[in-house]
Amino acid sequence: xxxxxxxxxxxxxxxxxxxxxxxxxxxxxxxxxxxxxxxxxxxxxxxxxxxxxxxxxxxxxxxxxxxxxxxxxxxxxxxxxxxxxxxxxxxxxxxxxxxxxxxxxxxxxxxxxxxxxxxxxxxxxxxxxxxxxxxxxxxxxxxxxxxxxxxxxxxxxxxxxxxxxxx
Length: 167
Description:
Elements: H1 3-13, E1 16-21, E2 28-32, H2 34-51, E3 57-62, H3 68-83, E4 87-93, H4 102-115, E5 120-122, E6 127-129, E7 132-139, H5 141-154
Parallel strand pairs: 3-4
Antiparallel strand pairs: 1-2, 4-7, 5-7, 6-7
C-alpha cells in the first residue's frame, strides 16, 4: 500500500510504522509498538551476552631457577585455568646474568607444557622476546567440556525428585 496510507493506518491503530527492509522492492514496513520492539531487542542482546564465555589469557611467571614446590603450585593453577576454558601464557623472566642461560628457561617451559598435555595443548615453541621467554597453552576441548559434565553429574542446581506415591 502507499506510504501515506500505511502511516495513517498505523496511527489509527495506535502503533508506529517501522521500516523492516528498506532496500527491498517495494520497501517492507511493519506496524508495531516501537518502544516494545526496542525493549525486546535489548533483552535478546542481553541473553546472548550472558551465554557467551570470554576466553581470557592467564599469565604465570617463572624464573629460570624456580623451585619444585613453586613450579607445582603454578602448574596446578594452570590446570585450573585450562579446565575453566582459559588460555595460559607461561613466562620465564630473566634478570641480570640469567639471560646467559636461556636454554634453562626454554627447558622449563617445555617441561611445563609437557606436564599439561592432558588438559592443554601448546600453541607453538617457546619464544624469546627481550628478557622474557614465553609459551601459550590452549585448553583441550575435552578438558573444558568435562568440567561442565562434572557440574551436571554433581546435581548442582537441580531439584530433588520426589519419591513415588504409594499404590
